[in-house]
Amino acid sequence: MKAKSDTPGRVATRHGFRSSHRDFYSEQGYTRDLAERALAHTVANKVEAAYHRTDLLDQRRPMMQAWAAHVCGTKA
């Protein structure tokens, strides 16, 4: 895409965009668990992962809509 970066002479990267995504959720007060799920991060602890099987989709939906509005420059 050659998307512009805030750093002169550089282009934006996928990892940087994902990092911005995660920062946005933290700054907006969303829980760590929801933010990590939105980025498709998995639970490293196998015991915890075995008991945490929900995708939290209903809770994530408004959060993802807020991110989309932020990126597109529109109101959520």
Describe the structure.
- With 76 residues, the protein is mostly helical.
- It has one domain (14-72).
- It has 4 helices and no strands.
- α2 (32-38) packs across α4 (57-72).
- It is globular, with a radius of gyration of 15 Å.
- The chain starts with 13 loop residues before the first helix and ends with a helix.
- The relative contact order is 0.12.
How is this structure best summarized?
The chain is mostly helical and 76 residues long. It has 4 helices and no strands.
Summarize the biggest pleated sheet: none
For the termini, the CA-CA separation is 25 Å
Number of domains: 1
Helix content, binned percent: 55-70%
Number of strands: 0
Secondary structure layout plus pairing:
Layout: H1 14-27, H2 32-38, H3 46-51, H4 57-72
Helix pairs in contact: 2-4
Features:
0% strand, globular, single chain, 76 residues, mainly alpha
